[in-house]
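Re: the 412-residue chain
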Amino acid sequence: MPKTKGFFSLGISFKDFLIAFVLLFNSFIWFFINLLILSTGLKNTNVNNLLAWTIYLVAIVGSSLLGSASFLRRNRVALIYVWLALGVITSLFLSAITMNINPDWLLIIIFFSGVAFGLGMPSALAFFAEYTVFENRGLVGGMIFFFTNLSVAVASLFLGTNLVIDSCIASIWRILGFVAFFLIKPPTKVEDSRRGPSFGSVLSRRAFLLFLVPWFIFCLIDRFYYQIFLARLPEVDTLSLSVEPIVGTIFALVGGFFADWVGRKKVIVFGFIALGLAYAVLGVAPEAAFSWYFYIAIDGIAWGIFFVLFVLVVWGDLSSVGGYEKYYAVGSIPFFIAYLMQYFVQPYISSIQIGTFEVSFSFASLFLFIAVLPLIYAPETLPEKKIQERQIRRYAEEAKKLAQKEDGDEVV
């Protein structure tokens, strides 16, 4: 499927790029709008927030695992249409969060909203993996996140004031995704109809676990400390919300580019070491403004790198046609577990003494450095041949320029 030449030398045709871009760009922004509606709306309802978030996130994970099943993978395009249509419907029903309806009905709506995101996401990510090539997958993924984050930043300026209108916008946005996907006319069958790997074989694969464990550690630490900043240091959280997305947006593109040049593992290790240093600086000088600025910048860099590599790139590198869906479905679980765990620890954050959580920065740094250990033994998912080819190509270009310069000097 992937081409060696194509759209701006990315090894992907423009149509293939559009298929992957439309599905992921539309879905990530739609997910953001849904989170905004739930985060704002649940505060004003008599529904147990912890229960609501548990149902929503468990529905995402469960439906994602179901959507990666082999019998659904063989009808991927049909599944995508059903998935997009379900998103249109659930977005409209989600406006009920502003109404005084029966809590049980609201929880049912929230459950199907989670299903409407998780069910087709592995297939959408599989399109991305199939239509990109190893040597440019990081850059293409970085481009998708770059434009997604920019759009989310713009959308956040206009959303959040009226949840009914936000629900209508989410529904219209999903309709646009449905229409765009229909107009592109993707292939109706998967090239390889063989049965994909089992979940057991995915989880028992050493290379997969060596990347999954660090990703899980990062997600847990990031969500835990986000709750601390939100509850105990609101001024830092405000600064973080305004600065980190900008830094993350830039480094999603930069990180994707370097992941294609020097390899995925080196870029991921850099992100963990940098973030570990940032927490170490906080532990040493928690009162210094520089420590917080340094941390916010590094955290933004890490999120930009990790989102591209752990959400889009690494699982696609490790899997193959017929197995993409399961790798992506399982690889996304740490993010949603960590997102859920923050609501379990939220009630206890206010009881933590200031000095205690300042000391905990050093423990966060330690755990992040521990997270690097599995990566030392993890294989490089970008084939070594691709890295060497690029190095040889770069040396050849430099030699050509040097030869041309010498020829010019001789003529003079």
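The domain at 7-192 is CATH 1.20.1250.20 (Growth Hormone; Chain: A;).
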